[in-house]
């Protein structure tokens, strides 16, 4: 998992396809067989709330796991509930005092406004394909493709997401498949051919090979 994601607090569900995916990956990929065997019974889990998942991802951008968790807790303490309307009711200076940069304050307010105004179609996401959801999310200021892909994996639990912008994924592939030599996006894509249609699951195990403690948004 990338280093800028907060560690899991409360989580809810593991995807029903997990066992099938692991069986496929262990059959198709010798490295995956080793990594999955080493990881025990842990699996991907979701917090179950779209707004919280996206807000946490914004808070965690470009800072360490520990720093992200500290800032998130301070930010959450300002709110009666983690709802868009509550975020919109905060003063920018209080958010800054919680450790958020001015840019992240703007991003969180933009996110809350999109949800409050119904400009994201949460109820339609189940029927939408991955790229359509990414396109909707990246229209929100502060959310790029990487954040949208984390949302697909951690909230919607889409099974075949390959986040090629993720430094942790590239580092893990480098370590496990290329003896530590640098890898390109093209290299990673080639390795992942054996993972399809379960790239999200394989990515999660690559993250585990770097940090055994599971993470959730």
UniProtKB/TrEMBL annotation:
Residues 59-211 form the HhH-GPD domain. InterPro entries: Alkylbase_DNA_Glycosylase/TA (IPR051912), DNA_glycosylase (IPR011257), HhH-GPD_domain (IPR003265). Coiled coil: none annotated. Its EC number is 3.2.2.21. It catalyses: Hydrolysis of alkylated DNA, releasing 3-methyladenine, 3-methylguanine, 7-methylguanine and 7-methyladenine. Gene3D superfamilies: 1.10.1670.40, Hypothetical protein, domain 2 (1.10.340.30). It holds the Pfam family HhH-GPD. PANTHER family: DNA-3-METHYLADENINE GLYCOSYLASE. This is DNA-3-methyladenine glycosylase II. It comes from Verminephrobacter aporrectodeae subsp. tuberculatae. The lineage of its organism: Bacteria, Pseudomonadati, Pseudomonadota, Betaproteobacteria, Burkholderiales.
């Amino acid at each position: 998992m990338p280093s800028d994601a907060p560690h899991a607090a409360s989580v809810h569900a593991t995807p029903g396809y997990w066992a099938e995916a692991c069986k496929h990956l262990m059959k198709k990929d010798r490295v995956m067989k080793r990594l999955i065997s080493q990881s025990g019974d842990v699996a991907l889990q979701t917090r179950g709330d779209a707004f919280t998942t996206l807000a946490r991802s914004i808070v965690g951008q470009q800072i360490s796991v520990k720093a992200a968790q500290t800032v998130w807790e301070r930010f959450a303490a300002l709110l009666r509930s983690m709802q868009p309307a509550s975020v919109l009711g905060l003063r920018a200076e209080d958010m800054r005092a919680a450790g958020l940069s001015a840019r992240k304050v703007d991003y969180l307010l933009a996110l809350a406004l999109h949800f409050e105004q119904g400009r994201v179609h949460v109820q339609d996401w189940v029927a939408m394909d991955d790229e359509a959801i990414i396109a909707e999310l990246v229209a929100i200021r502060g959310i790029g493709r990487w954040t949208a892909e984390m949302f697909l994996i951690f909230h919607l639990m889409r099974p075949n997401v390959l986040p090629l912008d993720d430094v942790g994924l590239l580092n893990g592939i480098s370590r496990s498949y290329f003896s530590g030599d640098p890898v390109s996006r093209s290299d990673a894509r080639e390795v992942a051919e054996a993972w399809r249609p379960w790239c999200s699951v394989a990515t999660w195990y690559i993250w585990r090979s770097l940090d055994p403690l599971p993470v959730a948004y």
